[in-house]
Amino acid sequence: MKISRRHALTATGLAALALAGCGGSAEEGDGASDGGSAGAAAEGTFPATVTTEFGDVTIEEAPVRVVALGWGDAEIALALGVQPVGASDWLGFGGDGQGPWAADLYDEDPTLIETLEPSFEAIAALEPDLILDVRGSGDQDRHDRLAEIATTVGIPPGGANWLTTMEDHVALVAGALGIPEKGEELLGEVDAAYADVAESHPEWEGRTVTAAARTSEGWGAYIEGGGRLETLARFGFVQNPTITELPADEGGFSVDISSENLDQLEADLIVAFPIYLEPDVITDDAQWQGLEAVQDGRAVVLSGELSNAFSASTPLASIHAAEQLTPLFEEALPAE
């Protein structure tokens, strides 16, 4: 079954896009903070102009009260030293809405805002001077309503709803905060983390990989887009050519894999994870167990925190994923 955008963006958390309410954001008012954003934005250069799908957006002065609604927007702001007063919890972490890779970056928990259907009244009540909705649906009506509340930075040009690349994501958030150079530094840290791993494991260069997921509707494999294959490419792997040849919907980033054709997943390494299912739905599956890669120990099944980090395609999550995935890949593909 093709991994829908609904499933594919917030997986087990992060591979599946937000379910309505998305595991959810807290009730309105939970985790409320009366404080403003922390000091990095004040150090930026303003006015600052960024280009979005909805045109150029100019931020006239350093924002003090930032609301971050897009998937990963708050995490990137935090990584750049800015603490949103409101944020959406796409993975249902609760508390401050952040995964363990972004723990303790808030001085006070933000007010959590619903994901797919945010309360515009709750957002307005926070009196934001900047709204980030960078990795989101790109819906014109949503953008227009947010822009009535405060200056809003939406998705990048090209209409890549939910598929904003890490580079564009960081560039737009950092640009809106007046600190583009800090965004470049953050991306450099991600590049360095993966470069260190790749240089230490030259044996992975050019080996084939399949990134797959299992939902209640069946199996799917990822193609380019959404960050998963791009993450694996940083380790040196290349896409399983069988998957590359399968038809995908225009604008999609996954292909259907039937249980009868599960051998299409065969590659030097298979990285799989369940979406809103327990891992044993994969590991106990007879067809899965019959795969040569599985029998040889060249298959890794992710769950929980690591599945989320692998799918997130945000800087802090990616650095965390690089650290946690490396020993699993070493075990699956031991150096000769």
What does this structure look like?
The strands form three sheets. Strands 8, 9, 10, 11, 12 and 13 form a six-stranded mixed β-sheet that branches. It is built from 13 helices and 13 strands. The protein has helices spanning 5-8, 73-79, 120-125, 140-149, 166-176, 180-200, 228-234, 241-244, 280-283, 286-289, 292-295, 304-312, 315-332; strands spanning 48-52, 55-59, 66-68, 86-88, 111-113, 130-132, 152-153, 208-215, 218-222, 238-239, 254-257, 269-274, 299-301. The chain has 336 residues and is α/β, with parallel strands linked by helices. The model is unreliable at 1-41 (pLDDT under 50).
Distance between the termini: 37 Å
Q: What is the overall number of helices? A: 13
Unreliable runs = 1-41
Shape: elongated
Query: Helix content range of the residues, please?
Result: 25-40%
The count of β-strands is 13
- Main sheet properties: 6 strands, mixed
The H-and-E topology, N to C, reads as HEEEHEEHEHEHHEEHEHEEHHHEHH
The Rg value, from CA coordinates, equals 20 Å
The percentage of residues in β strands lies in: 15-25%
What does the secondary structure layout of this molecule look like, with pairings?
Blueprint: H1 5-8, E1 48-52, E2 55-59, E3 66-68, H2 73-79, E4 86-88, E5 111-113, H3 120-125, E6 130-132, H4 140-149, E7 152-153, H5 166-176, H6 180-200, E8 208-215, E9 218-222, H7 228-234, E10 238-239, H8 241-244, E11 254-257, E12 269-274, H9 280-283, H10 286-289, H11 292-295, E13 299-301, H12 304-312, H13 315-332
Parallel strand pairs: 3-4, 3-6, 4-5, 6-7, 8-10, 8-12, 12-13
Antiparallel strand pairs: 1-2, 8-9, 9-11
